[in-house]
Amino acid sequence: MTVRFSEIRAMPGQPFTEGCPTRVVLDHIMGKWGVLVLLSLSDRTHRWGELRREVQGISEKMLAQTLRVLEADGLVHREAYPEIPPRVEYSLTPLGRDLMERMLPLVEWVAIHSDAIVGTDD
Amino acid sequence: MTVRFSEIRAMPGQPFTEGCPTRVVLDHIMGKWGVLVLLSLSDRTHRWGELRREVQGISEKMLAQTLRVLEADGLVHREAYPEIPPRVEYSLTPLGRDLMERMLPLVEWVAIHSDAIVGTDD
DNA sequence: CTGTATCCTTCTAGATACTG
DNA sequence: CAGTATCTAGAAGGATACAG
How do strand B87-92 and strand B76-81 relate by DSSP bridges? Predict the structure, then answer.
């Protein structure tokens, strides 16, 4: 194993204890919609409407909320073009790209093993 | 970037579309408590009471529920010893250990960057 | 096209009490 | 010690309508 959790836990600030900032970030990026939006953006820049279609099942409300949180976290960049009709493009910030480099191997694993896992029981 | 999402998306079964098994697995392992329980177990085998203490803030109900889901998924192994008082030990299965190898680098990233992220805004 | 605002339902999850 | 059962408050999330 490349990293051990005990080493991570021993880092300054005691990550993943109650009330710790890591818990908040974990909720943002590991939440149902956070992951799916970040995945879409890891591919390329997307417009609002594209994200609505690509992240299947997300409501406008949850898309707006998710994007606002990820933008406030500094993971997503929002670029609005003052045109009629309006055009807004969402992309990953450098920090967001750095994050996705760590997340994509995990997501790939999930894609490969999900059938077996859900097939086992659920 | 080591993997691209577009390649993952193109895999058989169209991962991460609506109703896909990957969505279910994602919810199990990326959920708030799923991650924290898996992290504790990635370190070593734990008894029920140890998990309650280590995963700070989790209720008995959520711990039981989380463990049952992860066990059904084949990620966690439950070993009950027929003693008085009873002793039950939880550990990762080989599949679970494989998963955590991909998850730990991500978790390490979160531990390192969380202060900056939450500091930015929330 | 890109959102916001509101209502309303469903589901999560914490607290409490209890059992083998 | 290792759980289960029940109840309930609150949050999450969907539908709809509307605005810039």
Answer: antiparallel
